[in-house]
Target: Efflux transporter outer membrane subunit
Amino acid sequence: MTMMTKTRRAGLVLTSALVMAGCTVGPRYQPDRMKVPEHFTEDEHPATDAEIARTNAELKDWWHRFGDAELDRLVDRAIGGNYDLQIAGQRILAERALRDSQASAWYPQVDANTTNGDSRYSLNVDNWPLRPGNPANRPGASYLSYGVSASWQIDVFGRIRRSVEAQERAVEETIEDRRAVLMTMLSAVVSDYMVLRDTQLRLEISNRNISVAQEAYDLTQRLYLEGVGNTLQIAQAKAELDSQLAAREPLRTHIAQITHALDVLMGQMPGTTEAELKIARPLPKVPDFPATMPSIVLANRPDIRRAERAYAESTARIGVAVAQMYPNFSIPLNFNPNASAMYQLFQAGALSWQFFMLASLPLAHGGKLTAQVRGMQAAAEASRLSYRQTVLTAFREVEDAMAAWHDDVEHTELLHRAAEDSRLASDRARKLYSAGLVGFLEVLTTERTALAAENAEAEARLERLQDAVNLYTAMGGGWQGVAVTATALPVSLEKQNILARAFKE
Model:
């Protein structure tokens, strides 16, 4: 058989393999169509198209709806400096690198080599084959060689394609993971800021009550000197003043701890923003109730999107396992001229090369390959069920947040009226006591009632703000206006390896 015939036959085999390369085994991914309700049960009215469009726009930067410029600045600093967010971005880069590594199997793998040295052969071995130019009385020889080795795997049944597809889905999962980290971080920053302003408000309430208790103590002393009061009333007033002073200290501690937590969320040392945050500001306003639809939740929740991508990845892994049961085709090539002198390396007699078309077919592996397929099928079904469970959990969280938002409106209004009535009753009790018409016990009772009512109102206002944060978070808002990742490799491969400027290894 002539060399030309061999080459044509090899070319025919290669062409046939390339034609078959369009065959990709394993199931094609089909999204799980889960039936969801047309609207939420806690909706006051079905949302219009205009309301849905407005809500979709608001979700991108929902924290602006609270109308607090200081909060907006803190969120921007957290997006730029939070370390958990940066770590999640690096994981995206790592998964992308793995995807590119999987995709490299599509291309020929080429390596260059060279050899230069001396060798000596034993004369004590019977029938040692004489080499050309190396008689028996010369057991040593110089050896020079250079060459190229290459291998190309033909992806006939889509094993590589399925591997790349699965890794691409893994990349998309890490993107959703980063979005989930971003949402959690945003929720933590906004919630901590609300708690900070609420605690500062309660500190103001505490300071006012300390002033009231001080006035009551001064009043009991004055009345005692005028012969109206008694030492019991003085002791009661002093005890109330001390109690109010003691209640203020935990509030100061809590404020310091919250500012430290905000600093860490922004990626800076605790105490960095304490000076600017210690200035008390009013609580932010409660935004309008957003229009909601189930489609918004499905489109925006990173956990739902990640679960769906995980199901797609598991489906692709089935294809990888199935492809292992089919023949594998590869083309190895070796070109290695060798000689004993430099000038001989480039002569025709020094040429040495190999070119094959290799095929391997798995025959008997004790059921290992079929077991791998069954395992991947079970993993894919588990991913599908996990996706469904994630959807149910997400809808429950939205329903719960909507219910809390609606229920807290009337609750907050009632507590506001109770606080106003309690303050009025406390003022009247002090006036009646100074006129000698009621005892000091009535004063203490009304003051404590007023303090409790004011604190309850502050907590209710905080709960309303937290309900808004929880609903926006449950709807999957916040990541839409932020780039997927702003990270980059710290070392440039092009600067590390001169060959990398021409080839991406």
Notes: The chain is about 60% helix and 10% strand. The two ends are 39 Å apart (CA to CA). Confidence is low (pLDDT under 50) at residues 10-21, 486-505. The first strand starts at residue 109 and ends at 120.
